Amino acid sequence: MARLSLPLLVLLSLLLRWRFRTGRRNSLVTPFFDLRPVHAETDALDAKNSPYRLVQDKMDFEANDRVKVTLYTVGKPFRGFKVKSVDEHGQEVGRFEPGALYKALSECAAATHESRADKEHVEMHWLAPADRSGRVHFKLSPTMFGEFSV
């Protein structure tokens, strides 16, 4: 029985690993908050030709500062997005306040869509950490979701 159990466990673990690499993950938060889309029906956009814009009202922050981050489209509406905040060294920094059209992810310095409704404009607010100052950059998912199924 023990000889059969080990190969079965190995096969099961390989199948589970394959499933989570090819399908929708159970959580939006991964150790480094992967910005790649988890919906199989989406394609990555070339940033240079993207109809989506991400604008922040300031780059340098002091302790407890609040930065307005605006995501909008110059083309067709979008349904989903992911935005991550990093400092000048590429490390996650700060946190997003909860909003009506997005949810803040407390496990990482990021925000994502709250619903699949069409959006043309989302205004988010980011809060700087209480113990430091620096420069913040916001990274947008390489894919903006048009239509997808969950």
From TrEMBL:
Residues 35-141 form the Reelin domain. Transmembrane segments: none annotated. Keywords: Signal. Residues 1-23 form the signal peptide. This is Reelin domain-containing protein. It comes from Haemaphysalis longicornis. The keyword rRNA processing does not apply. InterPro entries: Reeler_dom, Reeler_sf. The lineage of its organism: Eukaryota, Metazoa, Ecdysozoa, Arthropoda, Chelicerata.
